Amino acid sequence: MPSAESTQASAHPSDPVLPTREDRVAAAGSELIGGPIGRRALLGTSWWTPARVIVLVAIGMFALGLVQKAPCYNGGWFFGASSQYTHACYSDIPHLYNGRGFADGLVPYFDKLPGDMQYLEYPVLTGVFMEVASWLTPGSGSIQHQEQWYWMVNAGMLMVCAAVIAVCVTRTHARRPWDGLLVALAPAFALTATINWDLLAVALTATAMLMWSRGRSLAFGVLLGLATAAKLYPFLLLGPLLVLCWRAGKWRAFGTALGGAVVSWLVVNLPVMLFAFEGWSKFYTFSQDRGVDFGSFWLILAQNSSDPLSTETVNTLATLMMLLSCAGIAALTLSAPRRPRFAQLAFLIVAAFILTNKVYSPQYVLWLVPLAVLARPKWRDFLVWQACEVAYFLGIWMYLAYTTSGDAHKGLPTDGYHWAIGLHLLGTAYLCVMVVRDILLPDRDPVRRAGDDDPSGGVLDGAEDSFVLGPAVRPEQPVAQAVGPQVEWGARRPSGGSL
């Protein structure tokens, strides 16, 4: 009998791919809820569609993440610096309610803040999100009570973002809806969801990816521009998309996407740029001037050096490393035997930014979760990476507990924290290696092995190449091949030569 790895569930190329029939880890995990789906199961005939199930699971996991923050909600944020670290429940949200002037009714970017920060150090759309949450926060009671309310209001808004992300990932690969469970069940996703406001940008990026998969280039561009107005990283996706459209000759689609992104970003940013430029630019100058910080290999080098590199030197070297990574991804895209999938390159470019950046806050894992699921929907590799990220999540809080507990030295010393950083870096690099392997060996790619070409690629899906560095093959078509009592989709017809 064939293994779960080698059999595909679909009896027709348009049928959904069921993880419990193609993934050993998913099949083993399904024993907790009754085992793998049977041959005679009625699919799509119940109210319990994949999207509805996955959203409910995502909300349930999000709620568990809120419960994990309970020790801080009940006093850890207010009565002692170290307790919020020993309980691993820290969040920026309640601290910045008062620290960034929302409690005093200050207008972000326009009103100066007391102290050294001067202005809010977040992109404009995130600032709007924070401001709207402050409007919904009751202004009565003690400042502690208001901060608790502010965190709860933001948590409710961020839960909506989490549900949007789960739905978008579920629907981006039409034949693989159950891959959305990887997002819904990701432990690092639940643990970091309410540390900061990153889920807003992640939700907009996931929605943009869904629009591109449906061939809606303008909607993709508009949403990606809005995502970039909330966080800087989404604009990176335009790089691999440019190279993919170059290889496929889809310049019109890329131009439409780029135009939509630029216009929507300007619509959000231009009013603040014109009337409060100093406040608007704070995010960009803060990012440039910020020194080496938590989570990066730069911190390991700095803390083990008697003469650490200057911030300017680190900025230069990090930029150079990122440019080299971009060049490598571009070369891989143009020379791969088969055009890479958009989701694969989107994951690689954001992962490269995370690996080379001078800071890695624990919530940055949220950027990668939906992209990782779309790039390599393989439970084993995803869970290996998630285990590394959870270890880092615990490591940074234990390290901060150690540095804030005085002579008590509760937590993780510097050397132990360096190991946690190394684990995070290795876990992310491991997933990158697996994605690159799938690009170089398309038959190992779980998405293409099931008979698809590039379901997240929109106009790129099934398109012929117009520019390639080296030999390439046509997108392969699935051929039904009987395997025991099931039908396997994934045997290949010869392409008939190179293009």
Task: Outline the fold blueprint.
Layout: H1 19-22, H2 24-29, H3 50-68, H4 70-76, H5 83-86, H6 92-99, H7 124-135, H8 143-172, H9 180-185, H10 187-192, H11 198-213, H12 217-230, H13 238-248, H14 251-275, H15 277-280, H16 282-289, H17 297-303, H18 311-335, H19 342-356, H20 365-375, H21 379-404, H22 414-440, H23 446-449, E1 478-483, E2 486-492
Can you offer a commentary on this structure?
This protein is mostly helical and 499 residues long. The chain has one domain. It has 23 helices and two strands. Strands 1-2 form a two-stranded antiparallel ribbon. It is globular, with a radius of gyration of 23 Å.
| Molecular shape | globular
Individual helix count:
23
Summarize the helix and strand pattern as letters.
HHHHHHHHHHHHHHHHHHHHHHHEE
Could you tell me the number of beta strands? 2
- Please report the distance between the alpha carbons of the first and last residues: 37 Å
How many strands, what sense, and barrel or not for the largest sheet? 2 strands, antiparallel
For this structure, the quaternary state is: single chain
Helix percentage range:
55-70%
Output mean pLDDT. Answer: 87
Q: Which structural class do you get from the secondary structure elements?
A: mainly alpha
Q: What radius of gyration results from the CA coordinates? A: 23 Å
How many domains, in number, for the residues? Answer: 1
Strand order of the largest sheet: 1-2
Low-confidence stretches: 1-11, 477-499
